[in-house]
Specification:
This protein has 256 residues and is of the alpha/beta class. The protein contains 8 helices and 10 strands. Helix 6 links the parallel strand 6 and strand 7. The radius of gyration is 17 Å and the shape is globular. The structure holds zinc ion (ZN).
Length: 256
């Protein structure tokens, strides 16, 4: 019998664990839950009204939860715990070097059924101000590092062709590069400004006020921030209480 390669084994384990996670949420009527899965054809997609003219096709009170800059020790695990407690799936835009440093956490994000997306290798302050070739290299190294950490191998077409620019530092040339590679580029519709230090209750009220004003949309948070991890359980409870529904975005054709 042909031995199973480690990479293939890792994929099988990811699939099995995702199934187990879904099973643990069956019948959990008390949880916020994931209301629906949006299978996105990534080609040419640029979404998020903070950066682009369009956003995802969301109904009233539908939100897409996104987390940037992980995985990091401490806060990312707390974010995953909070999402699991409410049976909610989110999208994580991982930094390549963080995935390399914390491969167990990177795998846990995938195992628990979340979408693993890309956010460059080193999170330069703005890719748009770097020489084009260096910027592309940073993007590609990031994608490869995340794929290696999560799936045990890289190369070929990325499993999730979703990218978010660090600091939204995009340029027409880099947008064109990502479009040619078949990537969807994610901006955001609202955020909690969690790069500014504040207490979890302050961040909670800011996030809820902005969500109430927007009514729907792609919400940007950072799993790298402890203040966000600490306000998340209350935020998810409030989403449920206020009748918001969580939409999980996956690339079209992905097994879900
Ligand atoms: Zn970032």
């Amino acid at each position: 019998m042909r031995p199973i390669m480690p990479a293939a084994l890792a994929l099988i384990l990811v699939a099995l664990a995702a199934g187990a996670d879904a099973a643990s949420c069956r019948g959990r009527l008390d949880a916020l839950g994931t209301a629906r899965v949006l299978a996105l054809d990534p080609q040419g997609v640029r979404v998020g009204r903070k950066q682009f003219p369009h956003t995802l096709d969301l109904g009233p009170r539908e939100v897409v939860l996104t987390f940037d800059d992980g995985p990091v020790a401490g806060s990312t695990a707390l974010v995953l715990d909070a999402l699991a407690a409410e049976c909610v799936q989110a999208t994580f835009f991982l930094i390549g070097r963080n995935a390399e440093a914390n491969p167990g956490l990177a795998r846990r994000i995938a195992v628990e059924g979340h979408t693993v997306a890309h956010h460059s290798m080193t999170h330069p302050p703005t890719l748009a101000h770097m020489p084009y070739a260096r910027a592309v290299a940073d993007i590609e190294r990031g994608i490869a590092a995340v794929e290696r950490a999560v799936y045990g191998q890289s190369g070929g077409a990325p499993r999730v062709p979703f990218f978010r620019f660090p600091g939204f530092g995009q340029s027409p040339a880099l947008l064109g590069y990502l479009e040619a590679k078949g990537f969807a580029v994610f901006g955001a519709d609202l955020w909690a400004s969690d790069w500014i230090p504040m207490t979890p209750p302050q961040e909670l009220s800011l996030a809820l006020a902005r969500l109430a004003a927007a009514g729907r949309g792609i919400v940007l948070l950072h799993d790298s921030k402890l203040q966000t991890a600490r306000m998340l359980p209350a935020f998810l409870r409030e989403l449920a209480r206020r009748g918001f529904r969580v939409v999980h975005v996956v690339p079209k054709g992905a097994a879900h």
